[in-house]
């Protein structure tokens, strides 16, 4: 297993705050539940047996460590900095989400929970959770917006094939935000036997911290791999950000290094179009789904409908740690449009023979803006967070 | 004296009835009339819901009423206007109940000042547990606006004591683990007696009202037998939903309210 990098960066604090963001803004019924979860999580990650089991599963079942592939054709295309791809698309189930699902399912088992619930947008987290539940023989219920079920039908079929019950959510925008509301309502109703596997670095404390830590393996591996290949750290890290789990996983182990870190949000039709998911670029601090963070909301504090071509980024919030890293200027956040992401899908597919997920394509699209300012002796690591097979329906429509 | 506290002091041996209504449901014009009519028909306190787009502790009924009110253009300023209007003729205690984001967006300080100045008597914020009370506690207290915290069947004795210590007016007992909504008889009352007993042991400073799942006089009497009163929300909104906008819809609603308090 890859060693974890030690840092003095000490976020969140004991109350679950990253600077002024985070916390646990949940109904009283869930307070004992998240408190118990935090206690058990902290015990588990100090337990060598738990860590051994987690890392064994990552190796033997997920297929870690994932490769750090030098993208020679893409590098040649821009003729500037060297581009490396952290290949989370090679994880079992096709995206990074499984790292966290495995971690949380082990915790659920340890806590004696028998019923697993999850929310999903693109379906990747739902698939990862259904996979982990099948592997461990646990009941699995996935809440998914009705609109997402249409655009990600393949993932619905995959979840059902593995024995999960997919519940269609018809309320609100019928996407990830509403699926999350329904999952929380289920959790409030069944706090005793149910474990809620949240799929991103969002939600009440300890989720943002816990999910980040279950994904930090991405960054820990990438750091070791780039040192082996290049003998030095990269100059840039680049990842897409919806809730922000793949980005936090890559960024976290580099947080105290001299590395420029860039997160790319989904601008949808454009940040000023009213149809966007660029939370940091366009939003302001507020409370949704248990934490205080940047949000897309109107002047009355009502949550606005997000829009992105990518279901996984179609969310009006963002993890609280990203809000902190934005305000503290440690990470730069930008956004690209649906069209720019589609162009990136085509470019990466042709140049590298890898069809990236639409989410991931947002990170690649930023290369168009940043490459001309890079130098040939510089190094970029892009988190290739997932593969695009699941998006072929949407991609075909937009070719 | 705060109107809530006075109401409890004056209550005598009966049970107080608190009614929850989403501000702006079924339309912006009806809220004031409804509340005045509720009072005439036996309501002792009013919980006026500030609608939020993502009410994650609420069942389908209050999701629906919230969505309707938002689509009709409800805002916090409009809610303040409603309270101002009610205060012209009524001293019924009014508690604003809602999720924190609209309050945060309005500005916590401005919100508390304005609420107190129009005659609001307290706040219930279901997504603000005592741990997060720092976000509003100071502003509320400097405007003499008590915050009412919730306790649930899975709340520990220690946390009940904390809720009692931090609350003003009363403590809100959530009778079952779950979201808001009317429930079938029996589902609520079975274990609620032992829960209320435990609340009574730990909550000594404040009166207690019990809510979630109450839909009739019989439910209320059974569930609140050891409490100071009861709260009805979803069942009231369901009643409005059934009769609005029939010609005599308000009459039907008021007769339901009367029956909740006094029986048929």
In short:
The complex is a heterodimer of chains A (399) and B (264). With 399 residues, chain A is an alpha/beta fold.
SSE topology string of chain A = EEHHEHEHEHEHHEHEHEHEHEEHEHHHEH
What shape does the CA trace of chain B take? globular
Structural class of chain A: alpha/beta
Strand arrangement, largest sheet of chain B?
4-3-2-1-8-7-6-5
- CATH fold title of chain B: TIM Barrel
Q: What CATH first level of chain B would be assigned? A: Alpha Beta
| Percent of residues in β-strands of chain A | 15-25%
The number of distinct β-strands of chain A equals: 14
Give the chain pair forming the largest contact, with residue counts: A-B, 36 and 40 residues
Count of folded domains of chain B:
1
**Mean pLDDT of chain A, as a whole number?**
96
Helices, strands, pairings?
The complex is a heterodimer of chains A (399) and B (264).
Chain A: E1 17-18, E2 21-22, H1 31-44, H2 48-62, E3 68-70, H3 72-78, E4 82-87, H4 97-110, E5 115-120, H5 124-136, E6 139-145, H6 146-151, H7 153-161, E7 165-169, H8 176-189, E8 194-196, H9 207-230, E9 236-240, H10 245-251, E10 260-268, H11 279-282, E11 284-288, E12 291-295, H12 320-327, E13 331-337, H13 338-352, H14 358-365, H15 367-370, E14 379-384, H16 392-397
Parallel strand pairs in A: 4-14, 5-6, 5-8, 6-7, 9-10, 9-14, 10-13
Antiparallel strand pairs in A: 1-2, 3-4, 11-12
Chain B: H1 3-9, E1 16-22, H2 30-40, E2 45-50, H3 60-71, H4 76-87, E3 94-98, H5 100-106, H6 108-118, E4 122-124, H7 137-142, E5 150-151, H8 157-166, E6 171-174, H9 189-202, E7 208-211, H10 217-223, E8 229-232, H11 234-243, H12 249-262
Parallel strand pairs in B: 1-2, 1-8, 2-3, 3-4, 5-6, 6-7, 7-8
């Amino acid at each position: 297993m890859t060693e974890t990098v030690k840092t003095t960066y000490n976020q969140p604090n004991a109350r679950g705050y990253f600077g002024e963001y985070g916390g646990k803004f949940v109904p009283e019924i869930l307070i004992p539940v998240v408190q118990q979860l935090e206690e058990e999580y902290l015990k588990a990650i100090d337990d060598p047996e738990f860590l051994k089991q987690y890392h064994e599963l990552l190796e033997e079942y997920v297929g870690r460590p994932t490769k750090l592939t030098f993208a020679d054709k893409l590098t040649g295309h821009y003729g500037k900095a060297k581009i490396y791809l952290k290949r989370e698309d090679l994880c079992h189930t096709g995206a990074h989400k499984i790292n966290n699902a495995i971690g949380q399912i082990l915790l659920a088992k340890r806590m004696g929970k028998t019923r697993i619930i999850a929310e999903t947008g693109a379906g990747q987290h739902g698939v990862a959770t259904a996979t982990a539940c099948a592997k461990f023989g646990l009941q699995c219920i996935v809440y998914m917006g009705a609109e997402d079920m249409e655009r990600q039908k393949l993932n619905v079929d995959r979840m059902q094939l593995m024995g999960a019950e997919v519940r269609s959510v018809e309320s609100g925008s019928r996407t990830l935000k509403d699926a999350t509301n329904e999952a929380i309502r289920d959790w409030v109703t069944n706090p005793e036997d149910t474990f809620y596997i949240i799929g991103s670095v969002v939600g009440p404390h300890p989720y943002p911290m816990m999910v980040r830590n279950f994904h930090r393996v991405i960054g820990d591996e990438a750091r070791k791999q780039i040192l082996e290949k290049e003998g030095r750290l990269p100059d840039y890290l680049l990842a897409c950000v919806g809730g922000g789990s793949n980005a936090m996983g890559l960024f976290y182990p580099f947080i105290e290094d001299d590395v420029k870190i860039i997160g790319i949000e989904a601008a949808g039709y454009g940040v000023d179009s009213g149809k966007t998911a660029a939370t940091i670029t366009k939003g302001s601090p507020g409370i949704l789904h248990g934490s205080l963070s940047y949000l897309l909301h109107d002047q009355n504090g009502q949550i606005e409908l997000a829009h992105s071509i990518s279901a996984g980024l179609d969310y009006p919030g963002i993890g609280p740690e990203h809000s902190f890293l934005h305000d503290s200027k440690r990470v730069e956040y930008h956004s690209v449009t649906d069209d720019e992401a589609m162009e990136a899908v085509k470019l990466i597919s042709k140049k590298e023979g890898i069809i990236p997920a639409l989410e991931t394509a947002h990170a690649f699209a930023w290369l168009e803006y940043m490459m001309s300012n890079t130098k040939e002796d510089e190094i970029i690591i892009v988190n290739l967070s997932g593969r695009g097979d699941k998006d072929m329906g949407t991609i075909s429509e937009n070719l | 004296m705060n109107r809530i506290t006075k109401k409890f002091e004056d209550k005598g041996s009966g049970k107080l009835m608190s009614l929850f209504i989403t501000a702006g449901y079924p339309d912006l014009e009806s809220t004031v009339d409804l509340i005045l009519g509720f009072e005439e028909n036996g309501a002792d306190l009013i919980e006026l819901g500030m609608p939020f787009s993502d009410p994650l502790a609420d069942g389908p009924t209050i999701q629906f009423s919230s969505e309707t009110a938002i689509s009709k253009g409800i805002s916090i300023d409009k809610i303040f206007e409603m309270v101002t209007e009610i205060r012209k003729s009524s001293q019924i205690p009014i508690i604003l109940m809602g999720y924190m984001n609209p309050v945060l967006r309005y500005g916590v300080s401005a919100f508390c000042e304005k609420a107190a100045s129009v005659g609001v008597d307290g706040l219930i914020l279901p997504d603000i547990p005592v741990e997060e009370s720092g976000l509003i506690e100071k502003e509320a207290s400097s405007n003499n606006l008590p915050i009412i915290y919730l306790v649930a069947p899975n709340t520990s004795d220690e946390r009940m004591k904390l809720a009692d210590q931090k609350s003003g007016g009363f403590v809100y007992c959530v009778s079952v683990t779950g979201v808001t909504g009317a429930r079938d008889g029996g589902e609520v009352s079975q274990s609620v007696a032992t829960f209320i007993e435990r609340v009574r042991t730990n909550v000594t400073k404040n009166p207690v009202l019990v809510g979630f799942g109450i839909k009739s006089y019989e439910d209320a009497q059974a569930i609140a037998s050891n409490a100071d009163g009861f709260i009805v929300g979803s069942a009231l909104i369901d009643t409005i939903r059934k009769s609005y906008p029939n010609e005599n819809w308000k009459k039907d609603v008021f007769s339901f309210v009367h029956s909740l308090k006094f029986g048929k």
